[in-house]
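Hi there,

I know you've been waiting on this one. I reran it after we fixed the sequence typo, so this is the corrected version. Both the input and the resulting structure follow.
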Amino acid sequence: MSSDGQGAGARNQGHGLRRDIDLLEALASEEAQHAGGLGVDTLAQLVGREKSQVSRALKALAGEGIVERDPDTLEYRLGWRLFSLVARTVEDRLLRAAEPVMRSLSGELEETVHLCVLRDNQVLTLLSVSGHSFRVQGWEGRGVPAPCTSAGRVLLQDAAPDDLYVRFGLRADLGAGCPRSEVRTLPDLWSRIQRGKRDGYAAVREEFEPDLVGVSAPVRDFRGRVVAALNVSAPKDRFGARLDDAGRVTARAAGAVSEQLGWRMRAVPPASRRFT
């Protein structure tokens, strides 16, 4: 093949890739996320292409797991393989995005800051950052019960009532590992989760351990899903009087990390479901 022919082929491949990316961006739009997917007609209008071209491209992408088609509505949404690729890098990216923000937050509050994630029914600390002599040792890699911690209540914000039933069981005593916890039942937990959504942060006063208070705020990924929490915990006599102010500061810091992960900040709508 001549160099001109090779150049034309590369350009065509580049154009095809660009068109596929346009489709993926349309499927990642707020409209698509709100609707749960988009049909071929709507996608063709959004990207300015013929329906037949869009349909062929979507079928090819679906064959590779990059998009998926709802068998009932016949609408397309982003697929499992794309999210799998993102998931492989999200934790590393999360740590890189969070650490400088955590250092700034630790300096502002003069307390240790923890980056936490949810693992099964426990909160796991991935990273602790401190710029002062009060550094809390031994939290990295340690799991603690989600229901009685501020980080756990933040990390469960995406859960629906049915999700909590499945995760914890209908009659579980959620305070079994934390005798001082105010959360004993699933409705208790749901109420605290909704309070955290309303306030932008969750606060716990001596529920996990005596004399320990803390606040946490959600870190969201590009889809708006809670993937981590920034947590600040300290003794009550040093931190208790400024807990709510610290919660608001921590919420701003968590928002800054979320923006680096691709989340466009906007108000979280109030819960439309009730716990029954």
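Quick highlight: The radius of gyration is 22 Å.

Best,
R. S.
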